[in-house]
Specification:
This protein is an all-alpha fold. The chain is built from 15 helices and no strands. It has helices spanning 2-9, 12-37, 40-47, 52-80, 82-106, 111-144, 149-198, 214-249, 254-271, 275-279, 281-301, 305-320, 322-331, 339-368, 370-392. Helix 4 (52-80) packs parallel to helix 6 (111-144) and helix 13 runs antiparallel to helix 14. The longest helix is centred in the middle third of the chain and has 50 residues, at 149-198. It is globular and about 55 Å long. Residues 18-396 form the Major facilitator superfamily (MFS) profile domain. Belongs to the major facilitator superfamily. YhhS family. The chain crosses the membrane at residues 20-40, 47-65, 85-103, 177-200, 221-242, 254-272, 284-303, 309-331, 343-367, 373-391. It is a multi-pass membrane protein.
């Protein structure tokens, strides 16, 4: 009881500063992801002379590695403590930069070897990201208490999108003035600085207790993960196809629409930092799904650019709190010593959703037009709303 009281007493800037003191490590991890994102496809295709397939594969390998390693990251975070897992993940980010540098040194003499080194770096980065991201979230929860888990997840999301948005243009600048070596050194420098900042920080204790097997954890969180996967479809089709949608309509301003989505996403998390604690995860998720569905319908039926922009804005605002709202409930569905595994398993559903949304939406677009993919995504999010409502009828799950 005293511990819970102390957790609840944290508020305002003091609480946010404690969370940010750990979230910076997730920010650093995602910055090392964003830095090479806009550079490597062109480098593989234009400089190394490989096809667009290989350029795309180099980027995709990181996401596959993240997807496959997430359950392991959660299990090790539960067993060893989140600080060790974060440092391990940041070491992976450092090694990815080293792999890029070695690939650049050998590109003129050993093209295949350089390509292998780039692929190796992407795989290492994907594994590092899953460990650093999962560990940073659990470390933050350990610092401020499980009462504030929703806010910790929200701040980690802000750090993620902020780092990606900053990393891409910064990476282009580094490559322009320093080549692949300059980009690689920047990645290694960011990772090394984060490691040096993380090492002296006090660790939180690893959870004690017998870990649940993966199948048992999956059995408790899959329904929340399914709702997350359905709700992520809207983000997937906007991020992937909004430019093609604007082109098909003969409009300009697709980039601004993406900016509106990001502003709505981050702004909603900043404006409602305590909404999940106040109203409950499932209630917030249902509101978010309703707003996101409305936004996607507006995009799909838009007759004017302003209508599409309003829809994109609403979709961003709605999607903003879906992950933390459902994540709070999913994590509470398992014992405390299995929360890392639960969080990692829950996140896998979003990874899968974003991985398959693009190809499936592309097939639907070829069959029935680009507008239909937004209406179809709205239907999926509406199903997620019904699923959350169904879960709400079983309050013992929350």
């Amino acid at each position: 009881m005293p511990e819970n009281a102390a957790e609840s007493a944290l508020s305002g800037w003091r609480l946010n500063l404690r969370i940010l003191s750990v979230v910076i490590f997730n920010f650093a991890s995602y910055l090392t992801i964003g830095l090479p994102l806009a550079v490597l496809p062109g480098y593989v295709h234009d400089v190394m002379g490989y096809s667009a397939f290989w350029a795309g594969l180099v980027i995709s390998l990181q996401y596959f590695a993240t997807l496959l390693s997430r359950p392991h990251a959660g299990r090790y975070a539960d067993a060893l403590g989140p600080k060790k897992v974060v440092v391990f993940g940041l070491c992976g980010a450092f090694l990815s930069g080293l792999s890029y540098m070695l690939a650049g040194m050998g590109s003129s003499h050993a093209g295949i070897l350089s390509l292998v080194l780039l692929c190796l770096g992407r795989v290492i980065l994907g594994i590092g990201q899953s460990f650093a991201g999962t560990g940073a979230t659990l470390w933050g929860v350990g610092v401020v208490g499980s009462v504030h888990i929703g806010r910790v997840i929200s701040w980690n999301g802000i750090a993620t999108y902020g780092a990606m948005a900053l990393g891409a243009p910064l990476g282009v600048l580094c490559y322009r003035y320093g080549g692949l070596a300059g980009l690689s050194l920047t990645i290694m420098g960011v990772a090394l600085l984060a490691i040096l900042l993380a090492l002296p920080r006090p660790a939180v204790k690893a959870s004690k207790g017998k870990p649940l097997p993966f199948r048992a954890v999956l059995g408790r969180v899959w329904v929340y993960g399914l709702a997350l996967a359905l709700g992520s479809a809207g983000f997937g089709v906007i991020a992937t196809f909004i430019t093609l949608y604007y082109d098909a309509q003969g409009w300009e301003g697709a980039a601004f629409a993406l900016t509106l989505f990001s502003v709505a996403f981050v702004g909603t998390r900043l404006l409602f930092p305590n909404g999940i604690n106040r109203f409950g995860g499932l209630n917030v998720a249902m509101i978010c799904f309703a707003v996101e569905t409305t936004g996607l319908v507006l995009v799909g039926l838009a007759a004017d650019p302003w209508m599409a922009k309003l829809g994109v804005f609403l979709a961003g605002a709605g999607f903003s709190l879906v992950f933390p709202a459902l994540g709070v409930v999913a994590v509470k569905a398992v014992p405390q010593h299995n929360q890392g595994s639960a969080l990692a398993t829950y996140t896998v559903f979003m990874d899968l959703s974003l991985g398959i949304t693009g190809p499936l939406a592309g097939l639907l677009m070829a069959w029935s037009g680009v507008s239909m993919i937004y209406l179809a995504a709205a239907g999926l999010v509406a199903i997620a709303l019904l699923l959350a409502w169904r879960l709400k009828l079983r309050p013992t799950l929350e």
